[in-house]
Each structure stands twice: as structure tokens, then as C-alpha cells.
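Researcher: I'd like a structural prediction for the single chain below. Treat it as a standalone chain; there are no partners to consider.
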Amino acid sequence: MADVRDSPTVTDYPDPETADHITYNPSLATLRGYSSHLETTTDYGAPAYVSEYRSRSAERTKNAVDDGFDADDFRVFEQALDWVRDPHNDVVCVDRVVGRHGDAAHVCRLFVPEEYGRIALAWAKLLEPAEEADPDFVTVQLPDATPEPTIRILPEAGVTTVLGSDYTGEAKKSFLRLFMLRAKQRGGLGLHAGSKRVTLDDADGRREVGQLFLGLSGTGKSTLTSHGLWLDDPEGVEMIQDDVCALLPSGTVAGSEGGGLYIKTLGLAADEQPELHDAATDESAALENVAVDDDGSVHFDEPRHGRNARAVIRRDRLASASEDVDLPTVDQVFFITRNPLMPPVAKLTDAQAAVAFMLGESVETSAGDPSRVGESIRVVGTNPFIVGPEGEEGNRFRDLIATLDVQCYVINTGVVGTDDPVDVGVEETVAILEGIARGTVKWTRDDDLDLTVPASVPGVDVDRFAVADRVDGFADAQAALRADRREYLARFGTLDEEIVDATY
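Model: Treating it as a single chain, here is the predicted structure.
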């Protein structure tokens, strides 16, 4: 077994300011120019690219904490380090910062081949420039290095190597993965979540409500995080973060990406998501695997290059985006699910919230495994980037929300029922979110579901969404689901029994 102590650290990579073969922090225009041969220019002036790999290669990703590394794994880092050092290679290096304040801020350094400047271009638009400092994290991405993707991570060293994939998401997540790990090491918890601040001026006076939304990519996290709830001034909503946050022991939710958002664009419509659509059709955007004709016409409704079409959009093009990336306090956490045996929303105890966190129930999307789109899946924390024992994450989540007095909910953005199912529409979901923020939802105990569910929601006919009425053989189906959930949770040896016993 190779020794992790002999593997590279961030200090082993060449200093890009002194290495003649490395172009250090070129302008965005220069990065775009490097990949001009790969670009189709949209009719609004933004670059569009098509990658060979169109989603993350999760099955080909290993880290030294959770996976047994052998000599071949460590040679991946040696290969990348040798490439960066080789003076005959045209190397581009870009520094950015993930997070913004104090211990939550980390300098990130990305090395890519010059011809793949498009990867650095899109990634650089997501984050803010770094002041001069040594890097905390280093990623080398070499799309042509291997026939198939090979992604290896040294979490403690802060080093990631991506071989054989040209998907921008690999660069993005390489740094966010480590951002979340460092938050956990400081007593907090990294979350694959969007954050927003809702400002209300109602019977309870003028106040702010901090909300988090946990969900897999493609299940509505970005939509709910950015949705304005149709509030009118002086009320309103500010989108703080779209993808990854860190819940800290102080109660602050530290943001990660201060420059932009990496949104899914398939089905993006001007009438349904006008703000996101406007930003994605701005010259500042960068498109990946979006259907674009040779004349620059863009077709967000066409999966010409797969269903995981993406756009990097700039925060400063979003009217709802706050200048802040950190949420000072969080009041409510929502787990997004698409389980037809779940009501449109349920209010959870702390232990039940930890259950929801551990279950991470959703459906597979094209951002994860395109071959399994639509299948029911479970991902702890709806976060496929956890490093370390997953059960400990559930325990940490329960302890943090209990200490910080955070109320948690599970929200179904799919359908309710398996027989005569009914869609939970945007109108119902927005009414539920607004009602919860205002405190106008009346709750009742549903013994069949073993959950607290709405008795009334302003603007919603909750009786339409009675789960038991829309599932033939409901009692048996619910008992089977609960048993399956409990069996699943029992797999996590470090998860507290109190959480397993709270299975609903």
C-alpha cells in the first residue's frame, strides 16, 4: 500500500508566477480565446461549448479518506504533477477564492491545458478573484490524459487530480468538496444547499427569515432558492447562494461561490424563470452542452447534447442576488424530495430532520447518472461530495439544528400518490413556502404518515393532497417504505440510534 504521506501537497506544484511555461491568471477574454476553436458564439455574444463528458464521473471518483488507495491511485497525482512541471507544456493557472470571510475562505488554484481554457473560463466566472496568497486547494484537470475519467482526491492535502474528463463540473466540485470538508473539520457542516433571505412586512412586523434548500442537482433547488415568492415591495427575496454552503456552529451559513451560478438550462423558459433566463441569455454567460445552432440561435428546450445542459451565469445579472454570500442566521431548512408517498410538505422534529438528511430521497437526474434519470435514489444530505463517515454527518446535522433552534421541513416538488396522482405545482409550492415563512400554516398530526402535516395553507386546498386517498393499499405501502428506510439507515454504523428510531 502506498503511503499518503508521500503524495503531493499544494506546495509541490510550481509557482505559476515564476514558471515561464505557465500563464498565470490571464483575463477572461484570453481564456476564451484559448478555446475559440471549440466555441459556438450565441446570438447574444456568449460562448457555447460541447464537452465530451456531460456529467460528473461519480463512479470513477475516489478519495484517500474513504477509499483504499494503492500505488496506481497515487500515480495519478504524479502524472498530473509531472505535466504541470514540464516546461514543454502550455499550462494555464487560475486562482480564485471559495468563500469570502475568515476561516470559510480558501484560495483555489486550477491548472488546465491552454486549449481547454474554456474550463477555467467557466470556473473563474463562478468565483471571485483571489488576493495574492498561497493556495489552500489545488486541482489539475487534464481532459486528454486518459481514455476514461479518473478522479482522485487527497482531502487532507487539498489536492485533486482530474484525468480524462473535460466536464466543467469536475473542476467546480473539486473545490467545493474540500470547502465542505473544512467546514466540518471546524465543527460545522458543509451542505449541498441553496440559501435565501425572505423579507416580510406583515402582522408580526418587518423581519427577515433565512431559508436553506437541500436537494440533488436538477430537482428544483436553484428554482426554489431564486424564486421571489411573488412578493411585492417592501417585501422581497434575496438569493444568497445557489449550490453549496457551510452551516457553522455560530449559526452563520457561509457561502462558497461569489461570482456566479452553474444552472441547468434544459427547459429554461422566459415566462417561468425570467430572471435566470435573462442571465443565461446575457453575453456574460458561458454555456455548456446547450443546443446552439451555427447561426447562434439557442434552444434551451432541446436536449441535443444530453439532458445536463448548463450555463454559468453571473450573480450581478440577477436582480434577486444579494451582495452577500453569507446568511447571518438560518430559520428554516427544506429537504426537496420527489417521493409520491410524501405530502407536499411535512414539519419535522430534530431527529426526523436528521432522518430526512440521511435518506436524501429524490430522483436521479442527468447531473448525476444520465443512464438512471427518473429512478428513485437516496443520497445522504442530497450531497454526493461527502468525505468521511456519512453517519457522522447525520449526527452533526441534528446537533447543529437543535442547538441553533432551526425548524426543518421536507417538501415534495413532484406528485402525491401512485393511483390518481396529483402534481404539486409551482403555485402550491410557493404558497407553502410563503405560509411557512409568515407562520400562517396550521399544522396537524397525521398518524398514518407519522408526520406533522398542514391542516391548512392560505391559498392551497390541502385535502387534494391527502396521501392515503391517492395510494391503493396505502397502509401496506407505507409500512413497506418505513421498513425499507429503517433498513437503509441501519447501514450507517456511526449514526445515532435515536435517529434510526425516528424513521417515519
